[in-house]
Design brief:
Layout (H helix, E strand, L loop, with lengths): L1 H41 L2 E11 L5 E11 L3 H17 L1
Antiparallel strand pairs: 1-2
Length: about 90
């Protein structure tokens, strides 16, 4: 009688602790995903510009070769993108 109650008690305590640890992992994973999204939003957008015509003051035009262009997002753009990604994740 005593051994079965001890066994049940140990099993219940073990299940409680295992559920708590899984819950912590879920929260930690959610936080990690949010940090990943925020880190992506904070990096500048890198685009290749093929080239363009530069017009000088005297009207002469010269061709400027292609180059990499970096574009930073404003805070409003970042928050809007983050909001959309969070809504997608909540629906899924």
């Amino acid at each position: 009688m005593k051994t079965t109650t001890k066994f049940y008690l140990i099993a219940i305590i073990g299940l409680l602790f295992s559920n708590i640890s899984f819950a912590q992992k879920g929260i930690d994973n959610h936080e990690r995903l949010n940090n990943k999204i925020v880190q992506k939003l904070n990096t500048p957008t890198k685009m290749w510009v093929n080239g363009h015509w530069d017009t000088k003051i005297d009207g002469a035009r010269t061709w400027k070769k292609g180059h990499w262009s970096f574009e930073e997002k404003s805070f409003q753009q970042k928050s809007e993108i983050f909001r959309r990604k969070m809504m997608k994740r909540q629906k899924a």
